[in-house]
From TrEMBL, chain A:
Membrane topology: Multi-pass membrane protein
Protein name: histidine kinase
Keywords for the protein's UniProt record, in alphabetical order: ATP-binding, Cell membrane, Coiled coil, Kinase, Membrane, Nucleotide-binding, Phosphoprotein, Transferase, Transmembrane, Transmembrane helix, Two-component regulatory system
Lineage: Bacteria, Bacillati, Bacillota, Bacilli, Bacillales
Coiled coil: 245-275
Reactions catalysed: ATP + protein L-histidine = ADP + protein N-phospho-L-histidine
Molecular-function GO terms, alphabetical: kinase activity
Ranges where the HAMP domain occurs: 198-250
Annotated localization: Cell membrane
Top-level taxon of the source organism: Bacteria
Record domain Histidine kinase: where: 281-476
TrEMBL record, chain B:
Residue ranges of every copy of the Periplasmic binding protein domain listed in the record: 50-304
Main location: other
Highest taxon of source: Bacteria
Annotated protein name in UniProt: Substrate-binding domain-containing protein
Origin species: Paenibacillus terricola
Entry's localization field: Cell envelope
Family, as annotated: Belongs to the bacterial solute-binding protein 2 family.
SUPFAM superfamilies on file: Periplasmic binding protein-like I
Keywords associated with the record: Signal
InterPro entries: Peripla_BP_I (IPR028082), SBP_2_dom (IPR025997)
The keyword Cell inner membrane belongs to this UniProt entry's keyword annotation: no
Length: 488, 326
């Protein structure tokens, strides 16, 4: 991972190395040029030195010939030494082109020294005429040396003319190069700095935007930062935080939904209780009256009426009491019997009720007042409106894991839409004069009780009656049955 | 916006880098042509100098050409020194410098003067430097030269006289014009001419000497023509005089009828022949002179041929005639 610090170091390093490279190159170049200048100067100085030294030698010789003293002799010697040194210095200037001229040059210096020596020798041998001759020759040679020096310098200038001009051109080129370099570096730095700064600020900008979106409550936008520094790390962390928050929120939402459903169930229960309470307004009065009527009918010898009244009272009590707790199928069937008795008194022969019950299945549990409203519904739709009455058959049988309860009538049947409405638990209008608890309520309670959707099914054909089928699991019922028994 | 900034900056950078590189290339490439300070690979065996008085004449250019080529072949280093237009003082100075420079050998155009002889006989001999004369000789007794390479001037004189006889016939008046310095080679030529013409008594010769300035030549030519109005032929024994002489003759009469002869070792000899003013000219072999002189010098220095033939090594001479020219 490239940290921002590393980036800054790299930028600084690049700039520094460019500067250093330029500095080194220019210094090296400068040094080289200086060396060249020095060399050229050295050439000219050493040639000039030869001229000077030769002239000095001749002068010293002249002085000595005029006045042969020790002082003049030493002076002559020193100038000869100087001349020899200058000769050695000239030796370095050899090159292919000037070789011939330089050899001549050095030989001229040798000749000068020899002639000087010869002049001294003649002087010491008192042959002043020969000495003078040698001196004049030395003077001539010295003159030749000066001339040759000039010629050599001239040749040098001619030979290196191009080179010298090149040097001048080069220095002006160097100036141009300096300007170009400065411009290039300036623009390159601008470019680099721009790229560099935006590589730092762009991710930050993105992060800021993401944070703003998050603060506005949009948790579904992904935070994307494609850099490779600390900012991208931050962004990743930020994104993880967003995902976590998102998950938490959805969890809370799910919980709330569950809670909602629970609440709804409770409300349904309340409703039924409320209904039952409403019907409890004067229950004792009603029970007492019904009992009293039953006894009175019995005493007056009308046993049938007495039994009927007792059935009504029993049904009413059950209705009021057993709404919120599970009951055994047996209990339900008993209440159903009481209800049928009452209805038979009402419809007499018009109502045919067939019952076919597997006794072994009666111990399963189901919510109270489940069967009675369904049968009531069948009575209302299949028997009541018809002149010649109808048949309702009730069957309970074992079907493996579950117990199937069938309530069939031979009425006009119901439409598909209606069936769907019922099974979807939509609210629909129910005809009045029911005992109070609607079909809808039954379906809901059954489903909640069993925890299964397919606990109820309705089959109907137009004109051929309706069959309501309840399939209730055995297991759950058994456990609850025990509890119910415990409570008495 | 961002992208366009980057693109523009990038383009500017690329352009600037290009110019910078071009500029840098200019600065650093020219450095390649450093002064040719190549050290001397090997010392040439011999250092020779050819010294002449007339550096600019075609004749001497050919001589130096031949000498240079031969020196290069033999691996000796060679330089041609000299004066322009017969500057004697300069010429002698060059010889002295050559001696003082201790060159290995001096090939020199002979000059029949005391100063020259003094230098070659005393100073060069003292320093042990061999001298070969070329084209113009100075007798060995006077110059202590090792040998002479060039034309046989006596023979040249005879050839010119024979040509004159063939052209003019057995009788006539001839003016011989020579340089007042009367150098050795001129004497030889004259001798050659005289030796032929003295056998023909009907030929009258008149020899005159003149200084080599143009005015003097013209004046002398005028005098001679006044003296001998019936002259038939002219011989410029010194080639340098031919130009001015012919110019003067042309001023007084038509040049055509006169028989005019000269030699080739002057600036204008060839052009005079080509323009038809000269009837005949002795052509020498300057290229061979240069070549052979260097060759002999190297032979002497390396000890192959010691001593050299003191009589000299003679090079070919031919008679060039007007008619021969296209």
């Amino acid at each position: 991972m490239n940290s921002i610090q590393k980036k800054i170091w790299i930028l600084a390093g690049v700039v520094l190395s460019i500067m250093a490279a330029i500095w080194i190159t220019l210094t090296y170049y400068n040094q080289k040029t200086m060396d060249q200048y020095n060399e050229i100067l050295q050439r000219y100085l050493s040639m000039n030195e030869v001229t000077n030294a030769s002239q000095q030698t001749v002068t010293s010789l002249y002085n000595y010939l005029l006045a042969p003293t020790e002082v003049n002799l030493t002076q002559l010697d020193t100038s000869k030494v100087r001349l020899r040194k200058a000769r050695i210095a000239v030796l370095d200037l050899r090159s292919e082109e000037s070789d011939f001229a330089l050899t001549n040059y050095m030989n001229l210096i040798d000749s000068l020294i020899e002639t000087t020596d010869r002049s001294l020798m003649f002087q010491s041998e008192k042959e002043s005429e020969d000495s003078d001759k040698a001196f004049s020759e030395a003077t001539r040679i010295s003159k030749y040396i000066s001339e040759t020096t000039l010629t050599l310098l001239d040749n040098d200038l001619k030979t290196y003319d191009r080179f010298y001009r090149d040097m001048i051109d080069q220095s002006s080129e160097l100036k141009k190069l300096g300007i170009w370099l400065m411009l290039t570096i300036t623009f390159m730095l601008l470019l680099f700095t721009y790229l560099f700064s935006s590589s730092i600020t762009r991710p930050i900008l993105k992060l800021t935007q993401a944070a703003r979106e998050l603060s506005r409550g949009r948790f579904d936008l992904q935070v994307e930062v494609t850099s490779n520094d600390e900012i991208s790390f931050l962004a990743k962390m930020f994104d993880r935080m967003r995902i976590n928050i998102n998950n938490l929120i959805s969890e809370i939402q799910q919980k709330a939904q569950l809670e909602n459903e629970l609440q709804q169930n409770k409300l349904l229960l309340r409703e039924s209780q409320l209904r039952s309470l409403q019907s409890q307004i004067n229950p004792h009065f009603l029970f007492n009256t019904l009992d009293m009527l039953s006894k009175k009918a019995y005493l007056e010898g009308s046993e049938e009426t007495s039994d009927l009244l007792a059935s009504v009272a029993g049904l009413l009590r059950y209705n009021l009491k057993r709404l919120d707790r599970p009951m055994t199928l047996k209990e339900e069937v008993r209440v159903l019997g009481q209800y049928i008795e009452i209805q038979k008194a009402r419809f007499t022969d018009r109502l045919q009720f067939n019952m076919d019950i597997d006794e072994s299945c009666l111990s399963i549990q189901l919510p109270g007042l489940t069967l009675q409203p369904i049968v009531e519904n069948a009575v209302i739709h299949a028997v009541e409106p018809r002149e010649d009455g109808g048949t309702i058959s009730f069957r309970v049988f074992d079907s493996g894991e579950r117990v199937t309860i069938e309530i069939a009538d031979d009425g006009p049947g119901m439409s598909e839409t209606k069936i769907r409405q019922i099974l979807r638990e939509d609210n629909f209008e129910t005809e009045s004069h029911s005992t109070g608890i609607g079909f809808n309520n039954v379906v809901k309670r059954l489903r909640i009780f069993c925890g299964l959707e397919d606990v109820i099914d309705i089959k109907s054909e137009s004109g051929n009656g309706t069959i309501v089928i309840l399939t209730i699991p055995k297991t759950k019922g058994n456990v609850k049955d025990d509890e119910a028994l415990d409570r008495g | 916006m961002r992208k366009s900034i980057v693109v523009i900056l990038g383009i500017i950078c690329v352009i600037l880098i290009y110019f910078t590189l071009v500029s840098a290339g200019k600065v650093f490439r020219s450095e390649g042509q450093l002064p040719p300070r190549t050290p001397v690979s090997e010392q040439p065996k011999y250092r020779l100098v050819l010294i002449t008085q007339e550096l600019d004449t075609p004749f001497w250019i050919k001589v130096s050409h031949g000498a240079m080529e031969e020196a290069e072949k033999a691996g000796a280093s060679m330089e041609v020194w000299g004066s322009y237009g017969k500057n004697e003082e300069d010429f002698l100075k060059k010889i002295e410098i050559a001696i003082d420079s201790k060159v290995d050998g001096i090939i020199v155009q002979g000059l029949d003067s005391d100063a020259f002889k003094n230098l070659t006989k005393i100073k060069a001999a003292f320093n042990g430097i061999p001298i070969i004369t070329v084209a113009n000789d100075v007798p060995m007794v006077d110059s202590l030269r090792r040998t002479y390479v060039g034309s046989d001037q006596y023979l040249a004189g005879q050839m010119i006289a024979n040509q004159l006889l063939a052209d003019m016939g057995d009788s006539g008046k001839v003016i011989l014009l020579g340089d007042s310095r009367n150098e050795y080679f001129q004497q030889q030529r004259l001798k050659g001419i005289d030796d032929i013409l003295k056998n023909h008594p009907n030929i009258f010769t008149r020899y005159a000497e003149t200084a080599d300035t143009k005015e003097q030549v013209i004046a002398t030519t005028q005098n001679l023509m006044n003296e001998l109005p019936t002259v038939d032929a002219f011989i410029a024994v010194n080639a340098n005089l031919a130009g001015a002489m012919i110019q003067e003759i042309g001023r007084r009469a038509r040049v055509g009828p006169y028989f005019i002869y000269s030699f080739d070792d002057s600036q204008d000899a060839m052009s005079l022949l080509e323009s038809g003013n000269l009837d005949g000219m002795i052509e020498q072999s300057p290229y061979d002179m240069g070549r052979i002189s260097v060759d002999r010098m190297i032979q002497w220095l390396s000890g192959k041929t010691v001593p050299l033939n003191t009589e000299g090594y003679l090079t070919d001479i031919r008679m060039l005639r007007k008619a021969n020219q296209p």
